Amino acid sequence: MMDKNLMNSQASSDFNRAKSRALFNTIMNILKPERRQLLSFYDVKSLIKTSSESYRGMQAVNIDQIAGSEGRYSDFNKAFFPKKEHLRKRWESIDKAYMGDVNLPPIMLYKIGDLYFVRDGNHRVSVAKAQGVYSIDAEVTELSTEMELTSKMDMMDLKRTVIEYERNLILKQTDLDGIIEEGEIFFTAPGRYEEMLQHILGHKYFINMNQEEEILLPVAARSWYENLYTPIVKVIRDSNLLSRFPGRTEADLYIWIVKQWHYMKEKYGPEYPLEAAAAKYTQEFGYSFFKNPLKWLQQKFNPVE
């Protein structure tokens, strides 16, 4: 058994080293904060929209696959090294338990795809990581998803995966995947394909008001694309509006301009022109290098999702 004073000294040294590694990682990834942050379980769950939940029992889990936490994601960095001094006492007590060969209880994890999130045992994961342990015993509860998620993904990667999944789902559902040109209708934030689908369903309802037989969704989608989406995109291109929204797409602007247009028609009447609504939205919300160069650069290189 290691001497108590020596054990205390070693645990303190281990914590200092782990905390320094967290600081070094912060400095190395200062321009890409998502690379150094643990994922929030609830943020990911909300983004992915998981369905069923199943208890998977006791498993040995690779520590490198643990990418987030239920409640302590701001206390540790992405590699699970401690970021804050108040973690020291608990961290060192677990470190000393490792040195004394004390059997610790298994941690508790959520699993989404190949991502694991700590429910209970954040300090134990952190100490194990610092000690170079490969895997850790855990009780695992899995939340199902159809998306392919890997432990190397950060929040931006997850958002891109969700956007791609939503795009494929909605385009197939509406048969738009056989109509649109390659590279058309790309959004930069999750949830907008569902919003687009609501536009199509609204258009379908409007058309069916004058039909004896209800038209199918793919027919309504084609009509929406040809008579609503394409004309609005033409206005965006003709007026070069996309240059005022760095990092965004024509589809993004379509959604925003439609909202502006509906608002203006409610305020000024149904004859309010589309072009005026597009110009007004751009004037109010578009970025200009000459108007605000810092804001323009921020949006160009780090667009807010």
UniProtKB/TrEMBL annotation:
Q: Which domain of life is it from?
A: Bacteria
Name the chain's protein. Transcriptional regulator
